[in-house]
């Protein structure tokens, strides 16, 4: 098996994009974005889409190729990525996967867990419940039906809560019982590179990124999307908080501080997810990229 996927992971704002570009240029290959929000064309600033210069440096895939009005799942991403890799490996036996959505990277590397089919009427009822009684009632229900997953899931993400609940109700079993983490055989080997830093460094980089986003026009971008705030794609850090500001629930300074706080929490969840994987080559965020290339070249000889 000669095909290699280099997967670059780590917390948000740590420098995954620049690392991916350096590796893609060295190996003369292309980058696949594994980000659940950068795929939406209407969400550029708040999702930290790579700059035009970065996108032009090497070919990128799955950046702003969908609309927030399209239904797009991690299963769709897995299928699209595997199909794309078949094409890329015809020209080059190395491809780069980069992104901050752990579920998306894991779907490509390990495969998705096998969930049961659920009656669409269940989701319909849950959506009605969300509209009439709010997210809190769904959270309480999930805590009762699957306390284990309740402790892990992003409780501010209605889509994740709804998905878990519909499986619990439809199958009569906890959602977490289907999270087997079994690996699906792939036609490539994966080298996973994790970029890390001290917590203080990560948090400072997050704060700087949010400030930069505001200067770049995040407020205006969010305002243009406010009327669609109920869409799943927009249940996202950076937009939810500004929607609350537009709704008069808080002032702008508080909304910005909430973006920073919730982004820090997201980074913590990312690290918690990846720290459980033993096969990640963890490197410091400010390591010389030539050193990274040398490490990967060495690893390729034994893969």
TrEMBL record:
* KW Nucleus (keyword) present: no
> What EC designation does it have?
2.5.1.75
| UniProt region (Interaction with substrate tRNA), positions on chain | 35-38
Q: Where does substrate bind?
A: 12-17
Q: Which residues bind ATP?
A: 10-17
Subunit structure, briefly? Monomer.
What is its biological role? Catalyzes the transfer of a dimethylallyl group onto the adenine at position 37 in tRNAs that read codons beginning with uridine, leading to the formation of N6-(dimethylallyl)adenosine (i(6)A).
- Give the similarity note: Belongs to the IPP transferase family.
Q: Name it.
A: tRNA dimethylallyltransferase
Species assigned in the record? Aggregatimonas sangjinii
Q: What is the lineage of its organism?
A: Bacteria, Pseudomonadati, Bacteroidota, Flavobacteriia, Flavobacteriales
> Quick one: which gene encodes this?
miaA
């Amino acid at each position: 098996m000669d095909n290699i996927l280099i997967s670059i992971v780590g917390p948000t704002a740590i420098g995954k994009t620049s690392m991916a570009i350096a590796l893609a240029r060295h190996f003369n290959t292309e980058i696949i974005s594994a980000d659940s929000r950068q795929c939406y064309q209407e969400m550029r600033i708040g999702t930290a889409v790579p700059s035009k210069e970065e996108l032009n440096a090497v070919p990128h895939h799955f950046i702003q190729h969908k609309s927030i009005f399209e239904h797009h799942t991690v299963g769709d991403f897995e299928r699209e990525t595997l199909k794309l890799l078949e094409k890329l490996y015809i020209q080059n036996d190395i491809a780069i996967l980069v992104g901050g959505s752990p579920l998306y990277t894991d779907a490509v590397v390990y495969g998705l867990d096998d969930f049961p089919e659920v009656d669409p009427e269940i989701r319909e009822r849950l959506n009605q419940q969300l509209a009439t009684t709010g997210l809190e009632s769904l959270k309480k229900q999930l805590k009762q039906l699957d306390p284990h997953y309740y402790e892990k899931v992003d409780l501010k993400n209605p889509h994740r809560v709804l998905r878990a609940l519909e499986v619990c109700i439809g199958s009569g079993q906890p959602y977490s019982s289907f999270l087997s983490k079994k690996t699906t055989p792939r036609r490539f080997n994966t080298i996973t590179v994790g970029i890390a830093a001290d917590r203080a460094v990560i948090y400072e980089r997050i704060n700087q990124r949010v400030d930069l986003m505001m200067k770049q026009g995040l407020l205006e971008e969010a305002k243009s999307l406010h009327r669609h705030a109920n869409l799943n794609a927009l249940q996202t850090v950076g937009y939810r908080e500004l929607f609350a500001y537009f709704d008069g629930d808080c002032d702008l300074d508080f909304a910005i501080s909430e973006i920073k706080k919730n982004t820090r929490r997201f980074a913590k969840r990312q690290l918690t997810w990846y720290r459980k994987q033993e096969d990640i080559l963890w490197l410091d965020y400010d390591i010389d990229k030539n050193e990274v290339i040398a490490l990967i070249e060495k690893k390729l000889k034994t893969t």
